[in-house]
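G., before I forget:
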Amino acid sequence: MIPAHVPENRIVNFDIFNPPGVEDDYFAAWKTLLQGPGLVWTTANGGHWIAARGDVVRNLWNDSARLSNQCLAVTPGLGEVMQFIPLQQDGAEHKAFRMAVMKGLASRYVVALEPRVVEIAGELIANLRPRGSCDFVAEFAEVLPLNIFLSLIDVPLEDRPRLRQLGVQLTRPDGSMTVEGLKQAADDYLWPFIQKRMAEPGDDLFSHILSEPVMGRGWTEDEARRMCRNLLFGGLDTVAAMFGMVALHLALNPQDQRLLREQPDLIPAAADELMRRYPTVAVSRNAVTDIEVDGVTICKGDLVYLPSVLHNLDPASFDAPEEVRFDRDLTPIRHTTMGVGAHRCVGAGLARMEVIVFLREWLSQMPEFRLDLTQPVRMKGGNVGACITLPLVW
Ligand code: HEM
């Protein structure tokens, strides 16, 4: 049922999990909403608002006083199952836990991790190179972030295949596991590591975070589980999706491959611009009070969906937003690929390093590559949009 406060001219039927045409082009599918008003109400998935213009997306994302993170997603019940720390917290509680997580992901740890990321990326590329082709998503994009995560939490090599299965379910759920089952599997897997790090802190991500006091006390076991779960669910498919989009861009634009091979010092700026150009994360909020915006009222209790794609690809946010310009000045307005405001991604520095290392290693070790036109590129929608297959040849 459509609530009475939703004006008729704001009603659309747009399924965020499956926008029309998403399998061919995630960005084009979303961009159709930029033609209409800044805020629309979709009747799909139980009914919720979608911010559909750059300034509306950004302003609402920044409004953590009136929009809560508790709901996690428009999917009913998902927030109650996951209980992520710090993602689903608000206000002072969020600030305290976020601070501890940020300390664990401080740039000195990210810098220290880089040689390991180079090594893991190098091994994967060395295996792929002689083959002359691959499905980039399954054979690289999804494998590298998982291996990096396992290095971050210092998981022994022999334990890795078990989490690989879980990683596949996280990035490409095949429907064989419910959300509860997935959460339970993640917890069961992570728990021995969490317990060990709480008892005997080492030099790994979980230890760094869990040895930071929160609100003047130590972490409880429940809080530790919720935080580790957040890192696992937040740091895998997001990075895999970004790798996929970056590789797709380069496969379609051999001139950019050449430029970055010839001038590798452009790679950090290229990583920033590619991350702006290919945003695939969207977040959900629940209104804790009535909010007037774009001539309508979001009522207390309403769900609001904020897709970063509609901020970054709005021509009012960035000049010619679909053009990839490695010399674009990204300082006047920050893009929202990593979010904005109180919940901006705590893994942003790590993610940026991963993208830079991927570009450096792939471009320096692989010959020019392109799409394998005998097979389709397929994409998916959802809270993290992504390529699900990306056949490459070289
Ligand atoms: C390209 C890769 C990534 C993208 C696009 C991305 C995107 C985002 C976005 C948009 C948010 C804001 C959520 C909100 O406002 O509700 C966020 C938050 C978060 N991200 Fe990332 N992320 C990436 C990588 C990572 C990595 C590698 C980690 C950690 C290992 C991570 C951990 C988190 C956590 C814990 C939060 C919650 C922060 C808070 O609530 O204060 N992310 N991310």
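Residues 69, 86-87, 98, 101, 230-231, 234-235, 238-239, 242, 281, 283, 337-339, 343, 345-347, 350-351 surround protoporphyrin IX containing FE (CB under 6 Å). The chain is about 45% helix and 10% strand.

More on Monday.
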